[in-house]
Amino acid sequence: MDLPATDAEVWAALASTATALTARCDVYGIACNTLNVYAPRLAALGLPATLVTPNGAVAAWAAAAGIDAVGLLGARPVATLTEWSPYASLATDLRVETPPAVDALHQLIVDIKADGGAAPSLRDRFAALASAFESRHLLLACTELPLVAVAVSGKELVDPTDLLAAELVRRWSESGAG
After folding, report:
1. Domain extents for the chain?
2. Around 139, how many Cα atoms within 13 Å sit in the side-chain half-sphere?
3. Is 25 exposed, middle or buried (0-12, 13-18, 19+ CB in 10 A)?
4. pLDDT truncated to tens, each residue of the chain (178 aa)?
5. How far apart are CA 155 and CA 166, in angstroms?
6. SS3 content of the chain, % helix, strand, coil (to 5)
7. Do the Cβ atoms of 121 and 90 come closer than 8 Å?
């Protein structure tokens, strides 16, 4: 979750993996929301397969559903829309609400990683953080958040990984491979 400190080693591993993987597929995606910050660099490699990103899948979903605003729940670098956020580009087409309590949200994610999401207090903390958003549609922009996501009155929780999976299947089917 600290890409600025680990950028070189993460990029080397990701580029190597993507190069090997794309020799055997038509489309691919990276389920980790944070690692999708490398999408422009992967595209620059000219790999034979098409990378489908969670933020691209979210943009397509929002456009199709007529949604113009979302709240973004994710680790600090993702949720604050810094240069380390693959969701920063969403702000050109959508109003993207960042977390009112970004440090508490980041700590929740760290705790989910450590505890696996089993502790009931994690769900209570998630509900409190999600309730603080003004946006109706909340993106669970960290793969750990669905482990503790609970229904929150007046909010629609959207898992970008689900949208990514659906977009991958759609693109694969359209490529003639399906």
Report:
1. 3-53+163-174, 55-160
2. 34
3. middle
4. 688 899 999 999 999 999 999 999 999 999 898 999 999 999 999 999 999 999 999 999 999 999 999 999 999 999 999 999 999 999 999 999 999 999 999 999 999 999 888 999 999 999 999 999 999 999 999 999 999 999 999 999 999 999 999 999 998 888 776 5
5. 22
6. 55, 10, 35
7. no
Q: Which two tokens stand for residue 103?
A: 């440090």
pTM over 0.85: yes
Look at domain 55-160 and name its CATH class. alpha beta
d(CA 38, CA 62): 22
